[in-house]
Design goal:
Protein name: YpoC-like domain-containing protein
Organism: Mesobacillus zeae
Number of helices: 5
Radius of gyration: 15 Å
Helix content: 40-55%
Distance between the termini: 44 Å
Oligomer: single chain
Number of strands: 2
């Protein structure tokens, strides 16, 4: 495969919800830009020792592209829920949840890592985020999960504003 290879998902990211086959594709172009729409690609490179951007160290540069991907994903998800397309809904929720987790960790200056209990150590986070995310991950096709995810993102935007003010 030209310019790409398959890498094992690092143990820090290994969760069946996001990586059921425990591998992902890595392309050399990922080392020179921000790609938040490719779930945890920068974290995978970081944990695997590959050369890549570290968006959690350059939040001001990385967050705009993440928020753009979030807007596109949420817009598509609204349509999938309206049209009752469960497969597309599940894939969209997987994408949106990944974007939220990246936003949560990156705004706190960290790469995403599992288990979710590690979220408790982040200084800026929504109230009961661990429990709310657990609900979303266990029932991704429910409309209530979608609403909960949107609320978490709004709350994290406020937390990020507070984090920036305190630095």
């Amino acid at each position: 495969m030209m310019g790409g290879c398959i890498i094992a998902v690092p143990e820090e990211l290994l969760t069946p919800f996001f990586f059921p086959d425990e591998s992902m594709e890595w392309k050399e172009e990922y080392s020179s830009g921000y790609f938040p729409e490719i779930t945890f690609i920068h974290e995978a490179a970081h944990y695997a020792g590959l050369n890549s951007m570290k968006p959690w160290e350059h939040r001001e540069d990385a967050i705009p592209s993440l928020l753009a991907a979030w807007g596109d994903t949420i817009s598509s998800l609204r349509n999938h829920f309206k049209e009752r397309k469960p497969h597309e809904t599940k894939m969209g929720m997987k994408q949106a949840t990944g974007l939220f987790l990246q936003y949560l960790f990156w705004t706190n200056g960290n790469p995403v890592c599992f288990p979710l209990a590690k979220i408790e150590k982040l200084p800026g986070k929504p109230v009961n985020v661990h429990e709310r995310l657990s609900f979303i991950l266990s029932r991704p096709t429910l409309y209530h999960s979608f609403i909960q995810l949107e609320e978490l993102m709004k709350e994290q935007e406020k937390q990020y504003a507070k984090l920036k003010l305190s630095q």
